[in-house]
Amino acid sequence: MKELSVNDLVPPDWATGDVTHVWLAAYRSALQTPSLAGMTPIDVQQVRVVFVDAELTYQALDMVGTPGIDVMRLRPQIRTSPRAFYTLFLSPFDTAAGVNDEPRIRQLIGTTVGLVAAFNGGALVFERVFDNVIDLVTGQLTGFSAAFKTPVAYGQPRFSTGDLAVVDDASKALSQRDEMLQARVRVALQWFHDALHDDTQDEFIKLWVAVEALAMPDTTNVKPVNEILASSYGITAQDAAKRFGVGKLHGMRSRILHRGEQLAIHGDLTNYVRALFTDVLLAVLGLSAQHRADAYMQAPTFVSPFDLDALAHVK
Question: Full-prediction pTM beyond 0.85?
Answer without folding.
Answer: no
